[in-house]
Amino acid sequence: MKVLVAGGAGYIGSHVGLELSRWGHQPVVLDNLVKGHRQAVVTGKFIQGDVGDKALVKQIIQEEQIEAAVHLCAYSLVGESVTEPAKYFHNNIGNGLSFLDALRESGVNKFVFSSTAAVFGEPEKIPIPEDHPKNPTSPYGFSKLTFEGILKFYDRAYGMKYIALRYFNAAGADPEAAIGEDHQPESHLIPIVLQTAQGLRPHIEIFGTDYPTSDGTCVRDYIHVNDLAQAHILALEALAKGADSTIYNLGNGQGYSNRQVIEVAKKVSGKVISVKEGPRRPGDPAVLVASANRIKEELGWKPQYPQLEKIIETAWRWHAGHPNGYEG
Ligand code: NAD
Ligand code: UDP
Predict the structure, then answer these.
(1) What CATH number should be reported for the domain holding residue 278?
(2) CA-to-CA distance for 169 and 315, rounded, in angstroms?
(3) CB neighbours of 301 closer than 8 A, spacing ≥ 6?
(4) Which domain does 316 fall in, by range?
(5) Looking at the structure, do residues 32 and 107 belong to the same domain, yes or no?
(6) Ligand 1 pocket, 228 CB below 6 A?
(7) Would residue 240 count as lying in a domain?
(8) Ligand 1: distance of its center to the CA of 254 in Å?
(9) 50 lines ligand 1 (CB under 6 A)
(10) Residue 326 annotated among the catalytic residues of the structure
(11) pLDDT digits 0-9 by tens, 224-245
């Protein structure tokens, strides 16, 4: 299948593109490089441009004979979305909508969307199933939930068949290729912990030690980026076989506290990791753990790297080999 991977120069998108090639599909990456890296695109064609540029997207679809699309483009810093909601709504909703229109006007009706656990807000029960109430606490989570809603109505009116994948905490790196996580600025726990292990940061600050969890720190469900990528291929192949539109949660169903993550990172890296205890980060739910049973049952998704230690090992390999990320 010829697949337009919008946002394919980013962390998750670069792994999706690579995995598509491994499964015999042909990725065409569109990315404006506002956050992504040209070097992260290791297979398929790369086109620099904005997903909201409808004329460009239509031209790519026609010239490349695109059959399906994966939409990973977004701004995704929760804190920034609170202070700059307009930026988030314009990119995550406005540009996404323009992308959808370019696809439907060109007759492409298979769409895989990067959604997030942030659509749920503070969970009422753990693990979180797909039909759990949604009360996003940030403009970022709201932008993703809104886009899920847009997809539902585009399916009803225009037959746009979609699968939205709600990722929990993506982590790790491809064990073979030279691609990995390089966000600027970095906000995620695992890369920050590993940069501390490398001596690139003086300490890791734990945001909140008074949560109602076993050790007082937040609990998250980490999922290897290759396992996420695999889910995109399964989703695209299901849509190609006529699957109905749906939404799946993607996580391992097992939570690790921030302190546990740091302990595993110490073990994997063999380095000292200095820890500073700080206040809570606004908007962080205490526990986020996915129930991913539906995608396992319906699409046969089977994670290859369910253990946190393995996930951190692959991330450590990337960070150790690329202390400055893609720069140098
Ligand atoms: P990322 O920033 O590394 O990748 C996003 C890519 O989209 C970047 O390469 C960026 O340059 C590109 N982009 C953004 N706006 C664009 C536009 N208007 N036109 C063209 N390209 C544009 O982020 P990521 O961590 O790889 O996340 C990918 C997707 O997954 C995002 O939609 C994010 O919200 C979602 N998500 C990520 C996580 C996570 O743990 N990283 C968790 C849940 C959901
Ligand atoms: N976190 C932390 N220090 C940091 C970065 C993150 O304590 O420097 C915590 C954060 O508060 C949350 C967990 O690590 O409890 C995971 O955060 P991340 O930003 O990686 O992912 P999120 O859960 O926000 O999607």
Answers:
(1) 3.90.25.10
(2) 13
(3) 227, 230, 231, 234, 248, 250, 292, 295
(4) 189-220+253-327
(5) yes
(6) no
(7) yes
(8) 24
(9) yes
(10) no
(11) 999 999 999 999 999 999 999 9
